[in-house]
Amino acid sequence: MSEKPWSGAFTQPTDEFVEAFTASIDFDKRLALQDIAGSRAHARMLGRQGILSEADVEAILDGLEAVREEIEAGEFPYSVALEDIHMNIEARLTERIGDAGKRLHTGRSRNDQVATDFRLYVRDEIDAILAKLARFRAALVDTAEREADTVMPGFTHLQAAQPVTLGHHLLAYQEMAERDAGRLRDARRRVNLLPLGSGALAGTTFPIDREWVAQELGFDGVTENSLDSVSDRDFAVETASACSLVMAHLSRLAEELVMWASPQFGFATLPQSFCTGSSIMPQKINPDVPELVRGKTGRVNGDLMSLLTLLKGQPLAYNKDMQEDKEPLFDALDTVRGSLKVMADMVPGIAFHRDALRKAASAGFATATDLADYLVRKGLPFREAHEVVGKAVRHCIDHGLELPDMDLATLQGFSGVIGEDVYEVLTLEGSVSARDHIGGTAPDQVRAAVERARRRMEGEG
Ligand code: ARG
């Protein structure tokens, strides 16, 4: 019983199962280095403020360094009886340095301590995910540049709608990923504030210097309200929400790659190092990586829901419920990090089959809108042009033709304003290069968009 740092008022030992049930060490050991960094800054501040002696501070810093080495060497004796990472480290420190270790917790509570550790961890993870996002975006941009002239069908309702360039299609995902990065950066601004100094909930009676600790730990500032500081987890919700959107975007690309790599589409071949085979069907080369990314989106959405539900209805300030905040966010961060890595690694190795893409774009009357626009330029109101082209398409369906297969006389049967120049707008190249404005699919616009995206990425530093 004496092992517990809080057992003074207790007359009965903790139930054995309850001990395991309430412990968080199995998952919050991830916060070990953040916990030590926080304790270092806290101890030094206590020394500067004359709350602890210089000798105690020195002993604490040396002891924490030894504990850190033990953790990094994988030799730290984690104990479930000591509940969480905070008490594990403090107990180990005290074991090593004696009384000075018992003074470290002066002016601090595990409530502001865990909030600090968690924010430090999430901040570093956001930075790591931003780096992965940057690699993924660079892969998309490079591939888009390579495929700026590649024509493919653009889809609505998964039916060929209008020709687009593959470069344009890929840059759509770079736009999503750029907004994802913006959301993470925005969340980071609210993550990166120091809650330490809030004590258990009301602050502390010691003359602490929170600003100094904030600066030491690289926080942008301190939180304002102690009650809020120990019970606020909306930074975790925001981060998980940004993670969910990353996964939503990745899963859309993943879904397209699964389809494109199927023999039915035949648009792309994924690198074999990112595929696996079947134990029974020898012909199979399965797109497991994008399928798993698509599948993992569900668990991140679940993590977000867990966090939102966890917060709902908790009275101020800290409640033990809060301990449930870590596993969902850890899972979301791990999943996003891994998914971004694997997609960034895979994208440059995808072989796009330009002939198949082109053939698919030629089928399904994809230049029908171009013909309507042509008629408008010849003076027809758009609605009438739409009707004329609809009839021409009907004729093609009935006779097994595509629009450019019709001879001029047939086309003129639908509208007298049609001339020989109509064939230019019916070609795939004519169609895509005509959409020549910011946001359009023309190859020159894709190249310009690639340059702008690269410049913005450089600016993000
Ligand atoms: N393991 C706890 C958590 O993750 C640390 C804070 C415990 N505070 C308390 N008053 N029981 O939230």
TrEMBL record:
- Name of the protein in its database record: Argininosuccinate lyase
Q: Name one GO biological process term.
A: L-arginine biosynthetic process via ornithine
Q: Please name the PANTHER family in this protein's record.
A: ARGININOSUCCINATE LYASE
Similarity annotation: Belongs to the lyase 1 family. Argininosuccinate lyase subfamily.
PROSITE patterns from the xrefs? FUMARATE_LYASES
Q: Which reactions fall under this protein's catalytic activity?
A: 2-(N(omega)-L-arginino)succinate = fumarate + L-arginine
**Which organism is the protein's source?**
Thiohalorhabdus denitrificans
Q: Where in the cell is it found?
A: Cytoplasm
* Any single GO CC term annotated in Swiss-Prot or TrEMBL for this entry: cytosol
| EC id | 4.3.2.1
Q: What is the lineage of its organism?
A: Bacteria, Pseudomonadati, Pseudomonadota, Gammaproteobacteria, Thiohalorhabdales
Query: Boundaries of each Fumarate lyase N-terminal domain copy?
Result: 8-302
Q: What is its main location?
A: cytoplasm
Task: Give, as in the UniProt entry, the pathway in which the protein acts.
Answer: Amino-acid biosynthesis; L-arginine biosynthesis; L-arginine from L-ornithine and carbamoyl phosphate: step 3/3
Q: What are the recorded GO MF terms, alphabetically?
A: argininosuccinate lyase activity
Which keywords does this Swiss-Prot/TrEMBL entry list?
Amino-acid biosynthesis, Arginine biosynthesis, Cytoplasm, Lyase
What SUPFAM superfamilies does the entry give? L-aspartase-like
**Presence of the UniProt keyword Amino-acid biosynthesis in the record:** yes
Q: Which domain of life is it from?
A: Bacteria
The keyword Lyase is assigned to this record = yes
What would be the name of the gene that encodes this protein? argH
